[in-house]
């Protein structure tokens, strides 16, 4: 029923041609639109408010997001403020949104963030340099149009980082203290799919079957973590993204095995089930599982450490402090201390 939609995207997605596919379809249906492409990676509160201004100026009545997690999270933020007024920062936390968003359709062009199916939006507070988490059922998109073809425009690095983001979502949802039988099913299947398909995507980027498997893994992992939440990895990745503006998927990928090393003793049986989905057999030791994760990352060509991204030892206490204030840490299998989080970050240097 929309008459004029705000199409939220970014420059890279525009260049890839996916926006034109959407605008062609809108024109065919005689639906007016205005494009908002002022979205940066780790979208800022300022991006959201610029989008809100455009939405109101052009009297839009619906939103379409085309892109990865950044345009989708920004689109959610725009919808929140349009319907509820104030600043996007007012809605940090769980269930702070009173009024429903305008209709929201998401067309994801990456396979990993799961913003297209989740009740999360992550926005960077540009004043405090902190990523805030907004969690509400009302920001689950009304429709998501998911097609593996759109992921062909990702380069190898982005394919790896977003794929490992999906894997991290599934890991953290499965060991979350808020997991359920239903989220377990989604998480384990996502782990199996990513483990098998992501290496094929790296070696054969045009393998549509492999890309479809990673896209499905992202969807399933999104359904898992949207209901079971996440853990210490995402809490740390959010602090790194907020303070140093680092790529979210890459942060998760680097932190994954270091956080598992900390969590392992507290939830061995769950990591045993994860190991089995990754093809390991028998009673798995902590050492063997960590080696498996390390080798899997190496097989994808992922060798970076946090120090290579500009993270220094002297900023680690601040990063740990911010991670401990992140909503995701509450559902980690065990509540870490400041010292614990500093240790995990230091090991990832």
Description:
Helix content is 52%, strand content 11%. With 349 residues, the chain is α/β, with parallel strands linked by helices. Strands 2-1-3-5-8 form a 5-stranded parallel beta sheet, sandwiched between helices. A 3-stranded mixed beta sheet has the order 4-7-6. Helix 8 (232-244) packs across helix 12 (316-324), helix 9 (248-263) packs antiparallel against helix 11 (286-299) and helix 12 (316-324) crosses helix 13 (338-347). The radius of gyration is 19 Å and the shape is globular. The model has no long low-confidence stretch (mean pLDDT 97).
Tag the structure with descriptive keywords.
52% helix, 13 helices, five-stranded parallel sheet, three-stranded mixed sheet, single chain, 8 strands, alpha/beta, globular, 349 residues
Strand content: 5-15%
Shape label: globular
Radius of gyration based on Cα positions: 19 Å
Category from helices, strands and their pairing: alpha/beta
- Contiguous low-pLDDT stretches (5 residues minimum) are none
Largest sheet descriptor: 5 strands, parallel
Order of helices and strands: EHHEHEHEEEEEHHHHHHHHH
Mean pLDDT comes to 97
- Strand segment tally: 8
Strand arrangement in the largest pleated sheet: 2-1-3-5-8
Oligomer: single chain
Number of helices: 13
Helix content: 40-55%
- State the end-to-end CA separation: 51 Å
